[in-house]
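job 3f2a | input accepted
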Amino acid sequence: MKHLSTEILKKTFCPPAQRSWLLAILLIMTSGRLLPLSAQNIFHRFDSVLTENYRKGDIDTAYITRPEKKWTVTARFNLSGAKIEAEGIDIGKHFKSEMTADYKSTISMGVSYLGVSLNMALNPAKLMGKYRDYELNINSYGKRFGWDFIYQDARNFTGWHDHEGMERINLPADLLSVKTINVNAYYAFNSRRFSYPAAFSQSYIQRRSAGSFLLAASAMGQSAKLDWEQKMELKMTNIGIGAGYAYNYVPAKGWLLHISALPTFMVYSHTSMTFGDTRVPLHYQFPEVIITGRGAVVRQSDNHFYGLSMVYNFSNIGSEESLALHNQKWRIRAFFGLRL
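job 3f2a | predicted structure (340 res):
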């Protein structure tokens, strides 16, 4: 078999480097026949442990189940954006500013074997030099625990500034640079019948409608610099805890509609602004919140699935009677997957 595989690769005229990778893949795919007996036993034992961990769990199988297939291959298209708003009173005059970052789009592929996943994403605009920002999204959705981690370094914000008694001022790119970290996590109480991953990672299948109350925690850190009439710098660190609710609606076999909201209230807030050489602290103003909303539509059969999902983050800091800051961050994902 090894000799035959090598001959096949030679006939495909692959370069030597690519040929070695293809040969390795063929060896893995035919490992049950090529590996020595001791190695086969280790391989099958490892596979059995993964299978047992994948199948076990305290779940009500009338409501949620694991897919029967071991392999899942998923293609995704992601679109994300961000907006920052500032509103308040300056020397008795109302003002409002709005800055929006360029949209970011990525194409990604993922392969999962019994819940162990490997993903790769590409940003076509960044490869062509048209997108200068940097963004990192990491998420993990378990049936009981789950979290999102988002890091953004954006320098292409554009927008406007309104000040009472003055004409609107358009703000071009490169005036504002922002570095932001958003983290949010949940704990689902009804994990036996309700599944977050059924809507967002498709590692479970929701068979009947169910909902769950959730505990939630959120954290946000941001550093922003504005080089305008005078240099301004903003630094904030916020931590919130709260509770919310999520619901998976199954209107018909193979369909799933998800919606959830996780409001968290600040238990720690430290925000300051510097104008030139003057540092101005922003005192806590109730209610300061971080809200995470999610939604999804999924259609699936035995061997394929497709759909849309959305994650939205909103935070409110300060008071409009002095200075309020609103941050919005969102991501929309279209996906298609095969189970093998």
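job 3f2a | The first strand starts at residue 64 and ends at 65.
job 3f2a | closed
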